[in-house]
């Protein structure tokens, strides 16, 4: 059975039986990513940088995967109220992407 991931605080027709705790995953994209992205700005089409978006997507997916791993270890059926956060760290040289939510058992 797969774990349900949602940004909502409830799943219709599936009441929460037990709250297992907060789970989170973090990914930090280093300075080389920004150099690669800057080099890719030549590939901007319609005001969008495909390379930049690809790196952000990889980071987001990694943070969600880590969060999911912790939820699985707790025996969760779902993670509710998922929030994604993007923040620069290390004097703006790195980007931290965090995914967090509440792991629950559903009825």
Automatic annotation (TrEMBL):
Transmembrane feature ranges: none
Cited Pfam families: YbjQ_1
Name of the featured protein: UPF0145 protein A9A59_2473
Record family assignment: Belongs to the UPF0145 family.
């Amino acid at each position: 059975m797969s774990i349900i991931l949602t940004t909502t605080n409830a799943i219709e027709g599936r009441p929460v039986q037990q709250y297992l705790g907060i789970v989170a995953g973090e990914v930090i994209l280093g300075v080389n990513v920004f150099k690669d992205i800057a080099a890719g700005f030549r590939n901007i089409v319609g005001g969008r940088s495909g390379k930049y978006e690809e790196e952000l997507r990889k980071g987001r997916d990694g943070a969600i995967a880590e969060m999911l791993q912790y939820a699985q270890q707790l025996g969760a059926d779902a993670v509710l109220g998922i929030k994604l956060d993007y923040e620069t760290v290390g004097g703006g040289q790195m980007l931290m992407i965090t995914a967090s939510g509440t792991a629950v058992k559903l009825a």
